[in-house]
Design a protein that fits this description.
Blueprint lengths: L6 H11 L11 E2 L2 H10 L7 E5 L5 H9 L2 E6 L5 H7 L6 E5 L7 H8 L5 E6 L5 H10 L6 E7 H8 L9 H9 E9 L4 E2 L6 E8 L10 H13 L5 H6 L8 H10 L13 H11 L1
Parallel strand pairs: 2-3, 2-5, 3-4, 5-6
Antiparallel strand pairs: 1-8, 6-9, 7-9
């Protein structure tokens, strides 16, 4: 039975090992059992599932994941936490702890080696400074995972789920929604962590699409158009694209393509849907 998840138990483990939080790793440990249960519930983990946990910390959520899943592989970058995890996870025989940087780990090989025949889900309480690179790496590499359930900064969760015309809508929204369906499962206040972060957090589940949401001939071009549109989001799409150093289209090229789509040449990129960016990309290919 999971015995971590409160401020008292977390403080006890930290004091026992003389552990010091490392700012460079963005460490904030969850100390609210209700929130921990919400994350595991949101991940929809079954007894036949395999789980990759990124950043297990002292093993607070890892314990719960082991009770819910068939097997858990937890990837922890901080070597100082490995002895702690050896103790806190000693009661579970379905967990493997790896001391590594997830951004330098061959996750495709890990999945083949550790989870043969299993449905694989990713669960993580990510450091805010590296949230986007990790999420996009997981999605862009087309890993054979069913879902990614993560704790992120609240405004990042909102950006991932935002739609056209809203203040949170941007390149991250489009990139995530191209690869996955989004569901915000919970908002989490700072007092649920040790130490307390300065901002609120959110739990979001990304259910990876088996097929892309839109048909696009050139993914790279579509994402270049998206980056151009939001690089200068207050400009019209025509001006934003023609001023973007990574693209070589004239105003006439963009205006003609927009006319084909029956879209005003005065529109801003923030008003276009993922489908419209795909259509524009396909015309310009």
């Amino acid at each position: 039975m999971a015995d971590l998840g409160s401020a008292k138990s977390t403080a006890s483990i930290i004091n026992k090992y003389g552990f010091s939080f490392q700012k460079r790793f963005g460490q904030n440990f969850l100390i609210d059992e209700h929130v921990l249960d919400k994350i595991v519930d949101a991940a929809l983990i079954g007894k036949e599932d395999g789980v990759i946990e990124i950043g297990p910390g002292i093993g607070t959520m890892t314990q719960r994941l082991c009770e819910a899943a068939s097997k858990v592989v937890a990837i922890e970058i901080d070597k100082e936490l490995i002895p702690i995890l050896s103790e806190t996870m000693s009661g579970y025989d379905n967990v493997k702890i790896i001391n590594a940087d997830v951004m330098k780990t061959d996750l495709d090989k890990l999945i083949r080696d550790e989870f043969s025949g299993m449905s694989v889900k990713v669960v993580a309480n990510l450091p805010y400074y590296i949230t986007t690179p990790i999420v996009m790496s997981l999605l862009e590499n087309h890993l054979p995972v069913e879902s990614i359930t993560i704790m992120v900064q609240k405004e990042v969760a909102q950006r991932m789920q935002a739609g056209p015309g809203t203040k949170d809508y941007g390149a991250l929204s489009l990139a995530v929604q191209y690869y996955a369906d989004t569901y915000i499962a919970a908002n989490v206040p700072p007092n649920c962590f040790m130490p307390r972060p300065k901002v609120g957090s959110g739990v979001i589940r990304l259910t990876v699409r088996k097929e892309a949401e839109v048909e696009v001939t050139d993914e790279k071009l579509m994402f270049s158009l998206i980056r151009a549109a939001f690089n200068q989001r207050r400009k019209t799409l025509v001006n934003a694209v023609t001023n973007f150093s990574g693209l070589d289209y004239s105003k006439e090229d963009i205006e003609k393509a927009l006319a084909e789509l029956d879209i005003s040449e005065k529109i801003r990129g923030e008003a276009l849907s993922l489908q419209q960016f795909a259509d524009l990309s396909n015309i310009l290919t």
